[in-house]
Amino acid sequence: MREPSLNIESRFPGGIPPGTRLARETGIFAGRLAQLLGGALPSENPLSRQRELLEQIFRTTAGERPLADWEGSTLDRMEDPPHPLDRLAIALRLAPVEVDLLVLAGVPEQHEGLCAVLRSLHPRSEPWMSVGLAAQLLCRSNAERLLLREVLETGAMVRAGVLRLTGDAPFFERSLVPAESLWAALHEHDVWPTGILPREAPATVSGLEGWLATPNARLAIRTLQTGEPRTVLVAADSEDVALPRAAALTAAASVPSANLAAAGPWTPELVRLACLHSLARGVTPVLRLSSPEGSSTVEVPSFDGFPGPVVIAGREGATAIRGLRPAQTLYVDRPSPTARAQAWGELLPELASVSHVLATRYSLEPATVREVAQDVRSAAQLEGSAPGLAHVAASVRTRTGLSLTPSVKLIQPTAQWENLVLSPDRLSQLREAVDRLGHQQKVLDEWRLLAGRPGARGVRVLFAGPPGTGKTLSAEVLASALGVDLLLVDISRLVSKWIGETEKNLSAVFDAAEHTQAVLLFDEADGLFGRRSEVSDAHDRYANLETAYLLSRLERFEGLAILSTNLRNNIDPAFIRRLEFVVDFDEPTHEERLALWRCHLPSQVPLATEVDLAELAALYPISGGLIRNAAVAAAFLAAAQATPITRHHLVRAVWREYAKSGRAFPGIPAGVAEP
Predict the structure, then answer these.
(1) Cα 254 to Cα 74, 181, 275, 394, distances in angstroms
(2) pLDDT digits over 121-155, tens only?
(3) pLDDT confidence of residue 502
(4) Rounded Cα gap, residues 29 and 601, in angstroms
(5) Which backbone phi and psi does 566 adopt, to 5 degrees?
(6) Is the pLDDT of residue 384 over 70?
(7) Mapping DSSP to helix (H, G, I), strand (E, B) and coil, where does residue 674 land?
(8) Phi and psi dihedrals of 268, rounded to 5?
(9) Which domain holds residue 308?
(10) From start to end of 434-538, where are the E strands?
(11) How far apart are CA 461 and CA 436, in angstroms?
């Protein structure tokens, strides 16, 4: 084996930094080891060169002061403010000999030359400090050796996992190894053990003042400030909501924290390492406790013996706390519209004038609002424009990470009010539905109407009418007016023959809509919202249970839900009673058909001079959907013949629409050839 170089300057320019605590303490033990070797080895022993290396390391770290000036324990040289080593010793109430053992275990982590020395002195040629060599350095009598053994077998340091004894060998031939990555943490490097994943959770307090002022939150804040050994469980609908709330809690307490997740389950070893590293860093550990959907209750890890508070971010109803350690649960409530408006106003001041609109449209956590605000500013800067509602909508769509089932189709709406051809009464009802969402802050918060009623912020609308009369288009216009997406629910794929599956699918649909505040459209809703049947068998009973579940979930939904049906009488009266609006879509009148033809054949479309849209509107009483289809079909016929659109093209296209729907064709206008 190649001997280590004696030229420390060549290995580390400038030498080991003399002001660092760990370098100094390991240097002192290097000097003591050199002294021990000097009294035990003849001058010609091969280890004499390594003794010279140890002496040089000591001189580099200790300066001109002799070894005799460095008597006593490492703990006797505590610094102010405390070094991470001191913080760990104080928190765990380590004895001076335990702190010295930790430094000895870390000696090989400090310098590769020290590894070579220890390897040559170890009974099994390992690059670690052996228990026997540590005993020779620290013990002066058999009584001290017995005490050393007791400390290494039952002491606080070993129980806390600060130090491990490795190797299947007699006690004094075993190795002293510090906990994983702990030596790097004592160097104040941001390194965590394998399996522990630091999580960025911005401490966002804006909009959470009300929640933080609740009695339970104040108790948790006092726990964090006093350092009482207590477990605080922050429980929310998901861990991703609970973690930023936990970060806000520690920020409100003015307590530094480390937000941590585990690559797998939080095993006792990982928990112990997370706590050790947090103590060395002087932070409160905040652990994200994952509990997959459908799994049994996850037990909160035991923190018995940990000297300070621990915060757990978990899912409500999926975590259990056991043991004698004091604990409390702090539930996460959805921020009120006023609190959400405050968060939008403070975190995105560029759009403060519409903060109440944003609060109504997007039921987001303040931490997500902060992320959206960053996206909005970045997008606006790239475009060279001012931040706007469209930027917010795009960011929310990205940030919420919408996960859709096969029964749901996401539509990013583009239709506007001018695309609708409806009677003034119908248009008025649709605008009222939008206004009901837009003015909730005044009616529900300031005037306190429907106070405490579940689902009071939701709007439920029934669209009833024949196919092609504009129901789906109207839903898209409403979503566009609100600046949110439209979720089109395919009833045929949502309903399952398996017991409980339909409810599960419905829950996923409502969760997705609530997550993004998207507009929900149940097209051909008769299949789910139809009249309940008489119970004659188990199938009828479960079908009615599904309807009851849907009724309950719809009533609690705090967004815009639209039910679309071709036959209003098919909808269960129990649903009708809970709807804020019922909009009937009738077949268009002559004036409306003319407006529809003009809408679908705009000015840029080449029309032959003979084309009379008023004539088409008068002759063919068809719905807007069929008018759209006929206009597009006529355009393709004309394009194929390289001519403008003629009366013949339009009549032929209308004739096909009648044929597809199985209706009798009214006839052909004078002067037009047979289709």
Answers:
(1) 31, 27, 19, 34
(2) 999 999 999 999 999 999 999 999 999 999 999 99
(3) 80
(4) 91
(5) -85, -25
(6) yes
(7) coil
(8) -55, -35
(9) 196-331
(10) 459-464, 486-490, 519-523
(11) 12
Closest to 77 (Cα-Cα) out of 28, 15, 12: 28
CB atoms within 10 A of CB 187: 18
- And the tokens for 196? 């522990």
Q: Are 325 and 229 in contact (CB under 8 A)?
A: yes
Percent of all residues in the chain with a pLDDT value above 90, rounded to a whole number: 61
Q: What is the pTM of this model?
A: 0.81
> Which ranges in 362-461 belong to alpha helices (H)?
366-383, 389-399, 424-438, 440
State the residue for tokens 């932070």.
Answer: 283
Task: Give the confidence band of 40 by pLDDT, cuts at 50, 70, 90.
Answer: low
Q: Say yes or no: 439 and 570 in one domain.
A: yes
Is there a contact between 520 and 488 (Cβ–Cβ < 8 Å)?
Answer: no
Residue 491's closest CA among 520, 453, 454, 533?
Answer: 520
Whole-angstrom Cα distance, residue 324 to residue 612? 86
Phi, then psi, of 260 in degrees rounded to 5: -130, 140
Query: Would you state the structure tokens that stand for residue 114, as one six-digit string?
Result: 């020290």
Order of strands, sheet of 310-315, starting from the edge strand that comes earlier in the sequence: 196-198, 257-262, 284-288, 310-315, 231-236, 327-331
Q: What are 371's two structure tokens?
A: 């992320």
Q: Is residue 304 part of a domain?
A: yes
User: What CATH number does the domain containing 293 carry?
Assistant: 3.40.50
Q: What percent of the chain has pLDDT over 70?
A: 92
Phi, psi of 467 (to 5 degrees): -60, 145
User: What is the Cα Rg of the chain in Å?
Assistant: 37
Rounded distance, CA 241 to CA 400, Å? 12
CA angle centred on 525, ends 523 and 527, rounded to 5°? 125
Burial 644-671 (b: 16+ CB within 10 A, else e): bbbbbbbbbbbbbbbeeeeeeeeebbee
Residue 535 is predicted with a pLDDT of 43
> Do 151 and 224 fall within a single domain?
no
- Number of residues written out for the chain: 675
Q: What does the block give as tokens for 208? A: 């959470």
DSSP state at residue 603 = T
Residues 270 and 395 in one domain: no
pLDDT at 401: 65
Q: Is the dihedral of CA 539, 540, 543, 549 positive or negative?
A: negative
DSSP tag of 445: I
Torsion of Cα atoms, 194 then 199 then 200 then 203, to 10°: -130
What is each CA distance from 316 to 217, 291, 298, 313, 367, in whole angstroms? 16, 10, 11, 9, 19
Peptide bond into 244 cis (omega under 30): no
| Residues 6 or more apart whose Cβ sits within 8 Å of residue 555 | 454, 455, 458, 578
Is residue 154 located within the same domain as residue 242?
Answer: no
Mean pLDDT score across all residues of the chain: 88
Assigned domain for 206 exists? yes
3-state secondary structure of 323: coil
Distance CA 598, CA 592 (A): 10
Is the pLDDT higher at 9 or at 450? 450
Give the domain CATH number at 473.
Answer: 3.40.50.300
Neighbouring residues of 619: CB distance < 8 A, sequence distance ≥ 6: 666, 667, 669
Cα–Cα distance, 521 to 456 (Å, whole number): 19
